[in-house]
Amino acid sequence: MDRAIRQNAKILFLLKGLLFSYIITAFVLLILSFLMLKLDLSGMVISGGINFSYIISTFLAGFYVGKKVEQRKFIWGLIMGIVYFIILMIVSLLMNRVSPLPLGGLFTVLVMCGLSGMLGGMIS
């Protein structure tokens, strides 16, 4: 019984971390959109800002989950990054009705999200 409660707590921490990561993503993208409005940013800068938002949000969420779970922190950080990516792609597919990125780009974003979440979990 106690094991089931601990497992449910870990899932709850994962969900809180996901919510936290999407709030951070929204904030970074809001800043990026404001900069796009005020400045004439190139496509490379915009792409870099979007990648930065993925990396920083999954890193901080992995850090949060790693602090809360206290065991196998890097695995939970990796799971955080992968779940973040999966939800991001599902929402993107539902909104665009087409593939959001070429397959190579999808793999790159998956690796970025997974590794930054795992790094956050390792550092926590």
DSSP strand count: 0
- The number of helical segments is 4
Characterize the biggest β-sheet.
Answer: none
> How far apart lie the N and C ends?
28 Å
Mean pLDDT: 87
The residue ranges in which pLDDT falls below 50 over 5 or more consecutive positions are: none
Overall structural domain count: 1
- Approximately how much beta-strand content do the residues carry? under 5%
The secondary structure category is: mainly alpha
Order of helices and strands: HHHH
Report helical residue fraction. Answer: over 70%
Task: Tell me the overall shape.
Answer: elongated
Radius of gyration equals 16 Å
Brief synopsis:
The chain is mostly helical and 124 residues long. It has helices at 2-38, 43-69, 73-96, 103-123.
Provide an overview of this structure.
It is a single chain. This protein has 124 residues and is mostly helical. It is 88% helix and 0% strand. It is elongated, with a radius of gyration of 16 Å. Helix 2 packs across helix 3 (73-96), helix 2 packs parallel to helix 4 (103-123) and helix 3 runs antiparallel to helix 4 (103-123).
